[in-house]
Design brief:
The chain is of the alpha+beta class. The chain folds into 3 domains: about 300 residues, Thrombin, subunit H, CATH 2.40.10; about 90 residues, Roll (Pdz3 Domain), CATH 2.30.42.10; about 100 residues, Pdz3 Domain, CATH 2.30.42.10. Helices cover about 20% and strands about 30% of the residues. It contains 12 helices and 27 strands. The chain has an 8-stranded antiparallel beta sheet with strand order 5-4-1-2-3-7-6-22. Strands 8-9-10-13-12-11 form a 6-stranded antiparallel β-barrel. Helix 1 runs antiparallel to helix 2. The chain is flat. The N and C termini lie far apart (about 65 Å).
Length: about 525
């Protein structure tokens, strides 16, 4: 393994950047041209910087194979065909150097003890697949950390997942600063295109940043369908670096060898096989989600409880920006923060809001229970100009509905036969869209599942029941609820509200109570 000193890499990068700037300035002068020897020096410096950046980051990029657990004979035949006639049979993929997986992708090491980040779509359903990882000619079975697939966690909404292998000697990638990325910045992509890097030797491609805050292509034929990914609201880095099939989960790095994005090869639209070059930016949302996935938990995405709409075309022509609030749901975070219909939200924390997608993206970037500052334009009756207000909202949890299942090793387990969730993250059919739209005082959590004949079921609890109080205390999150009930070994008294608004008291006996 070749080790490169970071300071030498940085100095090389600085020299190349200065050289390129000098070369461009010289070429722009009408009376001068760049001497051949100087042009060659610039090219050599650029080559040296590229080689150094790749050498620094490539030891952190792995190849991942996904192998269905219950493969049928046709599946094995297809695998053999993809292996160009090389027999796969029932050989262990770890010991067969000719193994070419049917499903493959890339990953990036984020800790010395074996945690690897990749794209959720690379893993598909961890309950139905096994995973293998290759790194620098070393092979590992992957623990995508869970009971069945041993995956730490996989979140389809952010398209991020974390897996685990048994090693204590890995080289984690270094994250770069994405706050000042610009179009035209040179980047390198490292990954496993077409499974060619399955020996763990990452393949590299070169390009630049084509654009920022790009939207992922929607997988829904209906443009009005609910978005299944936060990246459909505009979070992605677009690059012209070549990202072939299998580079999803690889590293997009800058010329310092630091990771600024997790590459994802997405089809431009349904039915198109050629992939577009995108990367999930290593920003505050990425870091928050990955930290939760590493703990084996699914991330939460903020929800305000409003219905926003786009500004009118005439307003945009006058230079206005923001998202107009058309509906404020009673008792939810937006209502409690003081938002009113016709307010225009122009900023969330320090991020400017230009349209509805910006608002959804920034609110989703916040975790449930987090407070966000809203800058709002409010039109007052007969006022010449709208008032500028600063409101603070404590967001709840967004209901996420995706076609692929999420997976978490440390998901909540049922307490006395019941599970609870944030009220805002419950499907409307459970609450019948009743109390949640009319009550001024609403419970923060709701029963999401109840096992028949369990103590909770026998106490009369059903999915859709809101929980106001537990033993006299008010839970504000599922974590609050579970900590309250687990502190009691006996009967737990709850004040509940049904979807029709009826409030009652329920006593849930312990498992051992006859």
């Amino acid at each position: 393994m070749r080790v490169h000193n970071e300071s030498s890499v940085n100095s090389t990068v600085h020299r190349i950047l200065l050289g390129v700037l000098w070369a461009l300035w010289t070429c722009l002068l009408p009376t001068k041209s760049l001497p051949a020897q100087d042009a060659a020096a610039v090219i050599a410096a650029m080559e040296q910087a590229t080689v150094a950046a790749i050498a620094k980051a490539e030891q952190s990029v792995v190849a991942i194979a996904r192998v269905p657990r219950n493969r049928t004979a046709p599946d094995r035949a297809q695998s053999n065909a993809l292996s160009l006639g090389l027999s796969l049979g029932l050989d262990d993929p770890l010991t067969n150097p000719d193994f070419v997986p049917t499903f493959f992708g890339s990953g990036v090491v984020i800790s010395e003890d074996g945690y690897i980040v990749t794209c959720s779509h690379v893993l598909d359903d961890p309950k139905q697949n096994d995973y293998y990882v290759w790194l620098d000619r070393r092979a590992y079975p992957a623990r995508v950390t869970g009971v069945a697939a041993k995956v730490s966690a996989s979140d389809p909404f952010s398209d991020l997942a974390v897996i685990k292998i048994d090693d204590q000697r890995l080289q984690p990638i270094e994250f770069g600063d994405t706050s000042n990325l610009r179009k035209g910045q040179f980047v390198l992509a490292l990954g496993n295109p077409d499974a060619i890097a399955r020996d763990g030797q990452a393949s590299a491609s070169w390009g630049m940043i084509s654009n920022l805050n790009r939207m992922a292509p929607s997988q829904q034929a209906d443009s009005s369908a609910i978005k299944e990914s936060i990246h459909e609201y505009g979070t992605l880095i677009q690059t012209d670096a070549r990202l072939g099939l299998g580079t999803s989960g690889g590293a997009l790095i800058d010329l310092d060898g630091k990771m600024i994005g997790l590459t994802t090869s997405l089809s431009a639209r349904l039915g198109v096989e050629s992939s577009a070059g995108f990367a999930i930016a290593v920003d505050k949302l990425f870091l928050r989600v990955v930290s939760q996935l590493k703990l084996g938990k699914l991330p939460e995405f903020g929800f305000l409880g409003i219905q926003p709409e786009e500004l009118r075309i005439t307003e945009k022509r006058r230079g206005m920006r923001g998202a107009r609030v058309s509906v404020v749901l009673p008792g939810l975070p937006g209502d409690e923060a003081g938002l009113r219909p016709q307010d225009v939200i122009i900023q969330v924390d320090d991020e400017p809001i230009h349209d509805r997608n910006d608002l959804f993206r920034e609110l989703s970037s916040a975790a449930a229970g987090q407070s966000v500052d809203l800058l709002v334009h409010r039109r007052q009756f007969e006022a010449a100009r709208p008032n500028l207000l600063k409101l603070t909202a404590r967001v709840s949890k967004k209901l996420v509905s995706t076609s692929r299942p999420g997976y978490a090793r440390n998901a909540f387990t049922a307490w006395r036969g019941m599970l609870v969730e944030y009220a805002t993250a419950i499907p409307s059919e459970l609450t019948q869209a009743g109390i949640w739209r009319t009550a001024r005082s609403q419970p923060q959590i709701v029963v999401s599942e109840v096992e028949p004949d369990s103590p909770a079921w026998q106490a009369g609890l059903r999915p859709g029941n809101g929980i106001f109080r537990v033993n006299g205390k008010t839970p504000e999150s599922p974590e609050d609820f579970y900590s309250m009930v687990e502190a009691s070994s006996g009967t737990v008294k709850m004040e509940i509200v049904e979807p029709n608004g009826t409030i009652s008291t329920s006593s849930v006996p312990s498992e051992s109570t006859p």
